[in-house]
Amino acid sequence: MTGLDDRAAGCLLGLACGDALGGAVEFRDRNDLDRSFPDGIREIVGGGPHRLEPGEYTDDTQMALAIARGCTRDGIDLDAVAANLVAWYRSGPKDIGLATDRALELIAQGVPWQDAGERLQRTSVDGVAGNGTVMRCAPLAARFRSDPERLRWSSIETSRMTHADPRATWGAVALNQGIVHLLGGGHRDSLVDASIEGIGEDRVVDAIRRAPDMDRADVLSGGYVLDTLNAAYWSLLSTDSAEETIVRAVALGHDSDTTGAVAGALAGAEYGASALPARWLDVLHDVDEIRSLAAQLLAWDADTESV
After folding, report:
1. Where are the domains of the chain?
2. Is pTM beyond 0.85 here?
3. Is the pLDDT of residue 173 over 50?
4. β-bridge partners, 92
């Protein structure tokens, strides 16, 4: 593998590893996890509230793969992405967020995907700003690595299928810009600046900008999109390996699968698949397919760049 190939595979595999590792302890309190796992959760063993098989991942990876499968040589088929998400919703997944569930139900009932998330946003007093967008957007960073405008557009469009709030849509853009920076071998010292460049939502900018200087006690890890971004960037920037990034993210507790998945996508993009623990990849489901999808996304991006 070249460095770029390894990092792209690492991004998607890191996402899935963080999801599978964190899914087994989702909803548990941070102090409880600290007492039960003083050295961190380090083995993918399954179980937990969703009764996962060892190596099984949850909605984070399932939706990311739905987006990856909707990408094409020409770009992305948003109708296909929506159809993939609805098919997944109808399969009865073990884990699905409330807003995602409501939006996909609307689409399944015939509401155009362009309207579903917007309808939820209009009827929500506080807006629909859960982390269901940032958990799934990473494949777009590989597909549109060389095309910043299409990266931004596709991140927003796939997000607003379920979450039309600007914190969610711009959060996905910022995360994907950060992943692109790392995929290209960009230094972590400039990751924050690369992520927030041109972001049209000050709250997203603030959440990412604050991350490097935070104390663990102040890092939140619930389902709010800005907390997830903050926690994922903190986990990456306060560690020095892919494993430690993901372990640290999962140990924050609460929405541990999504914090682990987003941190894992960042860590995989920085360190590569070759840096992920072999014992994780040995049990993780669908490793070969995930590697193949990452390679295909990169190949299509290269084809687009050469045109």
Report:
1. 3-306
2. yes
3. yes
4. none
